[in-house]
Amino acid sequence: MAFVDLGAMVRVPRDDPPMTMGRTMRRVHPEPAVDVDVDEAYGGVTRAPPASRPWVMVTMIATLDGAVTVDGRSSSLGNRNDSAVLMATRAAADVVLVGAGTVRAEGYGRPSKPGQRIGVVTATGAIDIDSSLFASGAGFLVVPEGASTPPEVPTLRIGDGRVDLGAAIGALASYLGEPVSVVQVEGGPNLNAQIVDADLVDEFNVTIAPMVVGGAAARLSGGTAVSLRALDLAHVLVDDEGYVFTRWTVRR
Q1: H or E segment at 140?
Q2: Which structural domains are found in the chain, ordered by start?
Q3: pTM
Q4: What is the distance between the alpha carbons of residues 91 and 114, in angstroms, rounded to a whole number?
Q5: What tens digit of pLDDT does each residue of 86-105 get?
Q6: Rounded CA gap, 95 and 109, in Å?
Q7: Cβ neighbours, 10 Å, residue 14
Q8: 28-48 residue pLDDT tens
Q9: Residues 203-251: pLDDT tens digits?
Q10: What count of Cα atoms within 13 Å lies in the side-chain half-sphere of residue 204?
């Protein structure tokens, strides 16, 4: 069991990358194995949602010194195996939740998983509705009551002044009219900090990139709140480039 500061952990995602083969990955925990199937490692696991809401997982990448972005983006931190992990965790999720700033910075588009919905969390409703994310019908907004939103965009309104994330996650199935068992949260820092502070996270998938950034890059624990959570280490994978892929579950 490990205790870590999760005040504002964040992974800024990329668009769904092409379905290309990653390099060889090995498992070093719990049981050593070679040629690990990434889809099986992340998709072939049991996720038992709490009674009142779906299972929530946060997926991110960080350097050894904790930076999660370079020049506001994470794309230069990852490799093909990291992209494969992101694809595998997205494939395991029914719904993706992401902040509006991350959508703008990373240029979110249509998800590669058929039928997957992406909820964009925003306090103001200010978002480019002409993007392929919304044009494809996959995107919807999650806003507080009273926020101004384009009438043509599907919108879940919940919370007074700010989105009530616990209520929003619990309401996804009824709002979308379909079962929602697993939700993936993909940042940015404010959204992830709120999710952690509300004790809504069940799983963290953290890629450690073999590099240091320094400077003023956003960090894993860049928020002001201090939240300690007890975690169990579910697996550790490595590749030949020195990347380390960890999966942690929150002890309840």
Answers
A1: strand 139-145
A2: 1-15+26-46+54-92+192-245 (3.40.430.10), 95-180 (3.40.430.10)
A3: 0.86
A4: 9
A5: 999 999 999 999 999 889 88
A6: 14
A7: 19
A8: 999 999 999 999 999 999 999
A9: 999 999 999 988 776 665 445 556 677 899 999 999 999 999 999 999 9
A10: 32
The DSSP 8-state label assigned to residue 52 in this structure reads: T
What gap in Å lies between CA 125 and CA 141, rounded to an integer?
7
* 24 contacts: CB under 8 Å, gap ≥ 6: 34, 35, 239, 240
**In angstroms, rounded to a whole number, what is the distance separating the alpha carbons of residues 192 and 58?**
8
DSSP code string of 212-251: ---TT--BTT-SS---EEEEEEEEEEEETTS-EEEEEEE-
* pLDDT score, position 25: 95
Give the pairing type, strands 244-250 and 203-209: antiparallel
- Tell the residue number behind the tokens 């306090």, with chain if given: 123
How high is the pLDDT of residue 206?
93
